[in-house]
Specification:
45% of the residues lie in helices and 11% in strands. By secondary structure, the chain is an alpha+beta fold.
Length: 531
Amino acid sequence: MTRQLIDPALVDSNRYQPPTRLDFTPDSLTDLDSIKTIGFIHTPRARPHPDRPGRYELVEGHRRRAAWILYRPGLPMPCEIAEVTDQALFETMAIENIARRDLSAIERALLLRNYIDQFKATQSAAAKLLGLQSQSAVSHLLSLLELPAPIQSLVAAGQLPERLARRLIPYVHLLGEKKCLAIAQAGQGAPEHAPDRTDEGDRPVIKPESHFLHALIKAVDPIAKHINAAYWPMNWDPKTSADMGGTQMPLPACDSCPFNKVLDYRRYCIRPACFTAKETAWNSQAVARIAKERKLSVAAPDEKVKIVHDLDQARAVLATHSDAIRLVPAPQPKDYGERMRRQQVTGSPTAVIAILSSQADEVLAAAVARQKSKPAVKPQVSYNDRQREYKVVRERAQAALAICATSLMSLMPTQPRTLRLIVETIGGQIGYRGNLDIDKDGLTSKNTPTQLRAWLAEAILDGCNQLTYASKSMDNDLSETREALLAFAYTYKITYPPGWDATLLPAASVIPAAKRAGIQKRTPKKKATKR
């Protein structure tokens, strides 16, 4: 290494130095005004330019060179000349910029990408260069480069925090650049780091971050598939592949799929094509299993069939035992009653009955004749009487649920914000029924924690009341509700107050009051002794 005096005009900038780091103003160089009187404390380094003979390429010291030109114009600049490789030139530039501590996340990501691509470096070596703790930190930074260029500009300018930008990355392929940019703009002004929790365990509400999350959910919800709507097991591996945008890709299990994302307590599949292909594969396997059990044939792709949509007619068609009957895979209906009826007729809610088109008229005529030959069963109870009976059943069940809800309230959370989030999540799915104060934006601040806990307890126990809609006998309805409440109390170790099931027992019941005064352990019967 030799020290020489060189004309600053003959010294070129480091080829790897970002252009944004070469724009120096006089105000940004005031901390180097000592160069005017004493010169350099640390002399800049340069190397002979490999492509331009007679010139030099600066290794480090770009601000010092700019300050020398500003404070000592026309004078030769001292430099230390040494032979430096391109990789060492890049590493020196990176270390010099990182020391300034004002690099944005996008600039650090570009440094990593250029270093890995140009010098075939590993992510571990790149992590050491930038002083990162792990290889995963490198992956997180590099993932920012998957964002569209306008969003990268917001991150580089410090208008969008890195943590929100990373949250947007998985949805770029689903939403597109235009929607992602609108979501990113909604989060402008959010702090770089999330605020600490309060003593009550809640985080302060940050409006830009809240707007960002709301805009993201509003954009994703209509496009992505709801994982909760999947009726196959989450660990089910189809062991098949499907066409994903012109490429055959394997279908993984949902619980380990990287496209299974959670947004504000909602779980989405952000690759709808995979969800649809998995639904089709599950339906085909279910139909093949049912066809084997019932000794029926599955419709071939080249067969023309006529689907029987009326389930009563489909039951009559099955009774004809015709060789023209086929099973066809179909999506599971959303209506619960429709699913149950299809389950009863075909054995699976994802299978429908069809007939070969060439024999459809003949089989349907035989099915209609069979239906007419069967005598109609007259209803023993009129429709209005049955509705009045159901109303009484529901009122008696709701009265018992209200009593049991007071015992369940002891298990509810006490933190107001946590309780509010749970109620908003459940209320958004089943509706805000009950004594809650709501407006067009949802829950208001007038709702007390006691009101929220009471509503949440009744909403949970209301699942037991759904049994009252399916049975035919009033006493059976209420007995099923009582058994469901007993099972719930046993599972969660709850003790209901005495007389909680008074409205669930028949009016003519002779069960002693002491036996139904609460939940008691059943005593086993004594074994008979031999005489």
